[in-house]
Amino acid sequence: xxxxxxxxxxxxxxxxxxxxxxxxxxxxxxxxxxxxxxxxxxxxxxxxxxxxxxxxxxxxxxxxxxxxxxxxxxxxxxxxxxxxxxxxxxxxxxxxxxxxxxxxxxxxxxxxxxxxxxxxxxxxxxxxxxxxxxxxxxxxxxxxxxxxxxxxxxxxxxxxxxxxxxxxxxxxxxxxxxxxxxxxxxxxxxxxxxxxxxxxxx
Length: 202
What we know:
Shape: globular
Number of strands: 22
Helix content: under 10%
Distance between the termini: 28 Å
Radius of gyration: 16 Å
Order of helices and strands: EEEEEEEEEEEEEEEEEEEHEEE
Number of helices: 1
């Protein structure tokens, strides 16, 4: 979708990747939808269900390589696999984002947020990596990042918790019974570009 999305008022809504991505060269930040997501940008109801194969990167995520400086993700998910094939000195690999709020100004502490998101990614490496950090939601999250109702491999109760959190913040997104995001339309109904069907109560 984009190598970089930045700026308050910039929104990525109801975007979905379903294809496999295979890139045999170095990327600083790499994700199925966005490489670097920052400076107050907002992502809502987006997903990845493809496999990512990369030659190398500093930070790799199922959806986004790096989230920072007041950016927000809500009602998003990623499944599939991430495979890094080349030798690297250091790398962060996360199911949703490689890093969150890494090396950002202190005034953004507690502003960068991930709300009601989930992942179920498999992480693989075939090259030699001296310092590999990997995690479910993210491989690295700075103290003060606001994680709310985020899960790995969520069950029915987790989906209900995520929907309650989305309703509480007035989000236009809900998850259906399969954990797939549904966006509220301007007419008051529900709809999705990927035919995910009806979601939770709006």
